Structures are given as structure tokens and as C-alpha cells.
Amino acid sequence: MAEKIVYEVSDIERGREEYRRKENFRSHLTSVVSSLLFVALVVVVLKNSPGWPRVKESFFSPEYFVLAWPEVVSGLFLNIRVLCVAVIGVAILGTSLALIRMTTSAVMFPLRVVARFYTTIMRGIPMVVVLYLIGFGIPGLGLFGRMDKAVLGTIAVIMSYSAYIAEVLRAGFQDVHPSQRASARSLGLTQTQTMRLVIIPQGLRKIAPALMNDFISMQKDVGLISTLGAVDAVRAAQIVVAKTYNFTPYIVASIVFILMSVPFILLNDWYSERLRKREQTGGMV
Amino acid sequence: MAGTDLTNNKKVLRIDNVVKRFGDNTVLDHISFDVHQHETVALLGASGSGKSTLMKCVNLLEQVNDGQIWLGDTDITDPSINMDKQRSRIGVVFQQFNLAARKVHKWPREKAEEKAMGLLRRIGMDQKAKEYPDRLSGGQQQRVAICRALMMEPELLLLDEITSALDPLLVGEVLEMVGELKAQGATILMATHEMGFAHDAADRIVLLRRGKIAENGSPYDVMDHPTDPETQEFFAAYNRV
Fold first, then answer.
1. Do B67 and A12 touch (CB under 8 A)?
2. Which residues, in sequence order, are bridge partners of residue A69?
3. pTM, full prediction
4. Which pLDDT tens digit goes with each residue over A40-79?
5. I need a labelling partner for A111 at 20 to 30 A (CA). Which of A206, A268, B118, B154 fits?
6. pLDDT in tens, A122-175
7. Contact of A211 with A168, CB cutoff 8 Å
């Protein structure tokens, strides 16, 4: 471990540091004050709105919160299970679609057309509609007997998200500068080796923030499987609402989904920041 | 013209004991020199000697760790100044031309267009005013980049290795334009590897070595009759190429 070197500093630089410290303190102070003002404004508006007592009773009731909490949390385990399977499914299907769309050989032409058609269609259909089509259409075929709603929901999530992820991946891979491919091929790497060792690692790094963003959005969209009747966190909340005529369980559901996403949002922010730092050293603009 | 002693003129840029470190790596180690009005100063040095870092400090793209930089009577390292305003007093041309593929300007449209056309006419490129940058040759792009730097009527022109990305044939036309600007009285600080051009066009040579000033004098003294063995070796190496 090298010792920390201490440099002699002139009075001018010391003055500048002092000034910057003061400026920094002032800007922090300003942001604290403006945040407090904002919170105060929100509180005042809420308190003074005519319906506030009733909204408070039906959305923020502590008794119903306690009542709904265990139900919603046990429902959340289904969401987490679905999410885990869906992530793996989306990774496999999304990458395959992206790679198929990037092939150039003539043999792959039909597959390319299918992949293109698939990503175009799937990105156009609302998620809920995909859920209905898969959730009620596939059992209707009578091929697989009775299927768990959660399984069908997972399939729908995978199908919908793969289309988005495939396009993000493709953009990332194609964004790697052509000279990278050229130099990899010049070294004698095959097409496949070039993709695996050169293009994909660099492409993934570029799109990591976008992928994590999609993951976070998928995390909440697994809540949509409740529309098929699977008893997840959202459905559990609905059931309690139906029993009690109080909407607090929806707040509970929101809170558990937020809690689930916060670590990943922080991770995403941290990673993006690290990428940013690595790509631009210092600089003032 | 070149090699004229203009050190009695007003100082446009004063670099005073500037220190810049990246971590524990001291890139600029107490650098001091001045650029006077109508003077062309060439900043020479091996790669990694700190030329570009110094240019970035002058243009306020990097924050100095110590010392001061004065532009006219303003200490531009003072954190309380408006940095954007100071930057607009300096025209900068980079190694890569960085021309935007669309129009960017801060002035009323008519005034900006009139001025731009005037500048382009001066370099004989007013015929090309409607072209997109990627349809121009490297030399033309770099000349337009110089025009862009001149738009704000800068007190000082910073040229950071403006010919490094050009092929030898295009270097000539860009350097010719720099020569013309100089003849018109521009104040120029340029980092360059074009030794011949530095010798002919610069009034003064500042040679950086390992973050310190190794030489500061006329091209005649520094390049033709160097006394320091390391300086002799530096220019000899260039002459061998």
C-alpha cells in the first residue's frame, strides 16, 4: 500500500477550496430547504382538500394495513417465483431473438423474418392482452390439460418482455464499433468466437443500465398475472379489498412492490454511475 | 514575421504556477508562461508531457490543483466567475473536428449567418455553406472548425493538435489558414507535433517535458541552437523521422 502523498498547497488554492466548500454547503442547504417546502406544500394541499378525511380512512387505515399485510406478503412469494423463472426465460428467448435478427446467412432468412415479425407484434400488444390471449387461449386448446394460472402468466410475461429485451440487446451489440469486429476477425477468431468474446461483452456493458431498467419494470409487471386469477400480491390485496370495502390493501401491495424494487434501482444507479466515471475521467463539463 | 519578440505587448494569457494532478500523477508541475497580444506560442513536447492537459486547463475543461490562469485581467481559475462566459472568450479547435451535423448558434439568426458567411468567404468556402459536415474533406472540416472558433471573436485561439488527424496533403491547407490568422493579428496558443510549422509560424516555443517547462524562447534559440542535451535529443529525434 503506497503512502498517501501530501502536496503543498498555495494560499490561492486554499482560498478556492474554501470557496467551493462554502458553495457546496450552500447548495446542499438550498436543496434541503426546497425539499422541506415541497413536502409542506403537499401536506397542506392534502389536509385542506375536502375529501381528505374519507380518503385517509379508506386508503391509509392502520387496522386494515395490519390485516392485509400477511396476505399480501404471502402473495408476493408467487410474484418472486414468477419473476425468477421469467428472468431466465427472457434471457434465453431475448438473446436468441437478438442473435437471430443479427445473422446474415441466407439459410437463416425464414427465422429472421419470424423473429422480426415476433418482436414487432409482441411490442405492439398491450401486456394485459398478451396475458389474456395466453392465459385463456392456451388452456382453450385443450392440449396440455389443466395448467396453473401462474405458469401461463409466466409464459405471457416471458413472451412479452423477450421482444423488448431482444431489441435492446440487438441495439447494444450493433453499437459496438465495427472496427472491433474487424480486428477480432483479423486475429483469426471465427464469427461465433467474435460474438462471444468481443461483441457481446462490450455490448452488454453498454446496455446494462437499460437492461436493469427493463428488469425493474418487469418486477412490477409480474403483478399483472393477477388478472388471470393467480393469487399473487395484487390478487391477495384485491381479495382483502373485496371483503372489507377498504382500499388500504392496495397501498400495502404498492409498498411491498416498491420495497422489492428499491435494491435493484439503487444497484442500477450505482452501476450507471460507475460506468460514467470509468468513461470520462475528471472534467468539468 | 515569425520569431518576432512580442513580449512587450499586453499579456492576453498568463499561466502562473499551474499544477494539475490526476491522482498521484503530477501532469503539470508549476507551469508558468505568458502569451502576449498578437503572439503565436507553440507548445511542444513528447506525448504525455502535459500539452493537452494544459490546453484543457486553459479552456476550463479541467480544474487546476494549484496556481492561477489569467485571461486578460480575469483570474479564470477563480471558482466564483462565470465559466461559460470565460470559455466564450477563448476559441478552441480540437484534434477531432467535432462538427455538429446541424446548426448551433447563440445569436439572432441573421447576425450569426452574416458573420458565418463572412468567415467562410475568407477561407473560400462560402460555396459549401449549405453542405453537411460529412460531405466535406478533413481539411475543409478542420478549417470550418477554425471558423467556428472565430465566431465568438475570441481574445485567444487555442489549437490543440489540429493537424494530427489529417493526411499530409490536408495539413498544408489548414496550416496556411493558421498563418493567415496570425498575419491578421490573432493571439494563438497551439499544441502541435508539426515541428517545421512551429518553427516557421511561432514567435515563441514553449517545450514541456515531464510536466515542467524545459525551454521557453524564440524558435531560433530553442529549436536551432538548443544548449540543453535533452532538448537537442528531442529535436534530433524529430529530424530523423
1. yes
2. none
3. 0.69
4. 999 999 999 999 999 999 999 999 999 999 999 999 999 9
5. A206
6. 999 999 999 999 999 988 888 887 888 999 999 999 999 999 999 999 999 988
7. yes
B35-to-A180, B8, B9, B93, B222 alpha-carbon distances in Å: 43, 11, 9, 17, 17
Is-contact B187 B38, C-beta < 8 A? Answer: yes
User: Which chain B positions have a beta carbon within 8 Å of A13's beta carbon?
Assistant: 65-67
H runs (alpha helix) in A103-148: 109-124, 127-141
On whether the CB atoms of residues B152 and B91 are closer than 8 A, the answer is yes
Return phi, psi of residue A54, to 5°.
Answer: -75, -40
Rounded Cα distance between B214 and A92, Å, is: 60
Q: In this structure, what C-alpha cell is assigned to residue A31? A: 436543496
Assigned CATH for A77-233 = 1.10.3720.10
* Residues comprising chain A, all counted: 285
DSSP for B149-213? Answer: HHHT--SEEEEESTTTTS-HHHHHHHHHHHHHHHHTT--EEEE-S-HHHHHHH-SEEEEEETTEE
Establish whether this prediction's ipTM goes over 0.90: no
Q: Can you give the residue ranges of every domain in chain A? A: 77-233
Asked if A186 is an interface residue toward chain B (Cβ–Cβ < 8 A), one would say: no
Cβ distance of A16 and B65 shorter than 8 Å: no
**For chain A, first and last CA: distance in Å?**
33
What is the C-alpha to C-alpha distance for residues A15 and A232, in angstroms, rounded to an integer? Answer: 60
Q: In Å, what is the CA distance from A67 to each residue of A61, A243, A246, B45?
A: 10, 11, 11, 75
Beta bridge pairs of residue B188: B40, B157
> With an 8 Å Cβ cutoff, are B77 and A7 in contact?
no
- Tell me the CA distances in angstroms from B170 to B123, B136, B143, one per residue in order: 14, 12, 10
**The listed CATH number (3.40.50.300, 3.40.640.10, 3.30.360.10, 3.30.70.1530) that belongs to domain B38-49+83-240:** 3.40.50.300
Q: Are A174 and A102 in contact (CB under 8 A)?
A: yes
Dist CA A167 CA A124 (whole Å) = 13
- From B135's Cα to the closest Cα of chain A, the distance in A is 21
Listed by start position, the domains of chain B span 38-49+83-240
Pairing mode of beta strands B74-75, B66-71: antiparallel
Residue B131 φ/ψ, nearest 5 degrees: -80, 155
Q: Does B60 touch chain A (CB under 8 A)?
A: yes
By C-alpha distance, which of B165, B14, B3 is closest to B93? B165
Nearest to B79 among A2, A9, A16 (CB): A16
